[in-house]
Design brief:
The protein has 2 domains: 114 residues, 3-Layer(aba) Sandwich (Rossmann fold); 95 residues, Orthogonal Bundle (Arc Repressor Mutant, subunit A), CATH 1.10.10.10. It contains 9 helices and 12 strands. The strands form 3 sheets. It has a 5-stranded parallel beta sheet, sandwiched between helices. Strands 6-7-8-9 form a 4-stranded antiparallel beta sheet, with helices on one face. Helix 2 packs parallel to helix 3. The chain is elongated, with a radius of gyration of 19 Å. The model has no long low-confidence stretch (mean pLDDT 85).
Length: 230
Amino acid sequence: MGERILLVEDEEKLARMVELELQYEGYTVEKAFDGRTGLELALGGGFDLVLLDIMLPALSGMEVLRRLRRESQVPVIMLTARDTVVDKVSGLDMGADDYVTKPFAIEELLARIRAALRKRPARPAEEAPLLTAGPLVMDTERHEVTVNGQSVALTRREFDLLRCLLEHKEKVLTREALLDQVWGFDFAGETNAVDVYVRFLRSKLDEQFHFKLIHTVRGVGYTIREEGNP
């Protein structure tokens, strides 16, 4: 499956529960806990669907939807605790594709997600979701990584960490930021988990194919740079 879903929900326990269920179904999930951050992520593109709560701090879900629809037609399912006709009609009129009323059964949410994804227009071939760095190419839909055309087998965690670094290529990400984006906000382990998985990636990529991909910024974190960049 592999579709990317953005979940904008300020109730962290609910967000974590939904995230785990979606990941179990094979989706890739990114979370935001306020409307402003959610809008920035959604406008950044790359998502196949957005789950958007109405009652959000910083920027309401309705305002996020209004601004998002100026630039994107990504499917949006509204999550609302207000089961009124006015709220539902307002959301649909502003461009929402569907709505789910809280509390909801996860089976219903999953069914509505599948329905919304079936309705989306096919992605043009030229917009294939490829991330690159030097000889490395990541196909995020096929969940494949190649270097000079040779396939590289990665675990799911290794793939997610590499994807995060590639999506922020040339930017330095702290260990804390990587833990939050790859492991989740409630990860209870140590930050050296990032170091361990960076070593795994280096052994499969840098050392195996003899090129420098993942750079350490001492005292800060990690970054991916194209070969030849300082």
